[in-house]
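Below is how a single chain appears once it has passed through the pipeline. First comes the sequence as given, then the structure the pipeline wrote out for it. We keep one example in the README because the format questions we get most often are answered faster by looking than by reading.
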Amino acid sequence: MSNRRSELRRTLTGVGFLLPNILGFLAFTLVPLAMSFFIAFTDWDILRHNIFRNEPLSFVGLENFVWLFTHPEFWHYMGNTFFLMLGLPFAIAGSLGAALLLTRVSRHPAALRGALVLATLVLIASGLVLLLGGMAEMGVWFIFGLLAAGMLVGGVLTGGTIYRTLFYLPHFTAGVATFVLWKKLYNPQTGPINFALAPVLEQFAAAVQVAAPVFAVGVPLVAGGLMLLLAGWQVRRLVRQWDDAAAGPVAVALGAALLALPAVFLLHWLDVPVPLATGGGLAAAAGLVIFTLRRPRPWGPACARDAGVSAEIAIGLGLVPMLLLLAAGVALGSGLPAATAGGIEPPNWLGDYAWAKPAIMIMALWAAIGSNNMILYLAGLSNIPPELYEAADMDGASPMQRFWHITWPQLAPVTFFIFVMGVIYGLQGGFEMARIMTLGGPAGSTTTLSYFIYIEGFETGRLGYASAAAWVLFALVFVLSLLNFRFGNRNAND
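Resulting structure:
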């Protein structure tokens, strides 16, 4: 009996300590979540349904969801959200490069001098940016000077710490302050970015006019050739993975299908009608998938359908932005002479419809490189057995071969996890940047799904529509989470 009372007392004590957190979870998470689910099926409008007006609340079923999926603005804002996530592969590549650089500095003390030189150059460049951006106030310079001195002293004393400090520098400042600073940097009249771009663009326009035929023909040919070489390399690699049974049909199909996404954009940029451009891209994707999967397998046993998915998705998504840049070169190269006839003005970064999203993407890329992704890559690098590198050194493998055949396969699951979490964050993010820097403009070009939910719920007062959009966003995040659990932790060596 005494043991039972003692166990009950310990249980009640534990519940007592946890009770504040439990009540907080119920009050601020579970109850609002249940209310949001209920509101999504009603016509709740703050302006009509409040304590000052006695209008009845109506149950509308799936009407809010039907309105969302038939409303052009919803798809436009969803497109904005996915467009901003195109920078995710570059952010992943930057985080991986930072982790590799940091690992090299930590393992090779001789690289410390280069690290300090790089850090000093970064600090000087940052100081010049602040100066040109009109940020010469005494307080800013004092804080920046102390921060720079601290980083340099820390780098001298601890070696690799300088890299950790530099890469995490974007996270030392509050997000609002960072967005305000970037808004000043993007200022088309007084910002240092356009101040530096103006003479470069002037010289480039003059060079294009001097050699107009070369640019009109050469740029599309070079970009198209590189695009075909890169796509061919990916197809050849997928075929080899399929023949060697290193990747299953799902991985190969996804890796091949992703190559068709730049083709859709290229056709669209060449003024091909949207249905034809989409149909051409789908046809190209189907052709690549059939080509890679229907070839007779010369050797190797059949493998599981999910084998190699994490690696192939990571590689395929990394190739998409590069192919998009080359596709842009093909589409825009022929128009360079005409576009530069009157000179090239620096872009109005946040005020131009075409430049607003790339401007925000660049800022987000700057912040993402020094994020938690680098820590995950550092952990992944530390878990790679050193015996693999020792065996590669004995076989005379080059650094590139070591990376491609040892480092990258071992980090593929980590990369896939980072990608999935990055997509989830990208679907849920974008509100702060859009709110502070552009207010969702111009013409809704930077309005993301999260900002759209805010507008519908708190500016227009249509809580029913906002809740429906929030649950659509939740469904997207949930599906991506399932994909991560399904494929992200498998095949560490694929």
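The longest strand covers residues 49-50.

See the next section for the split statistics.
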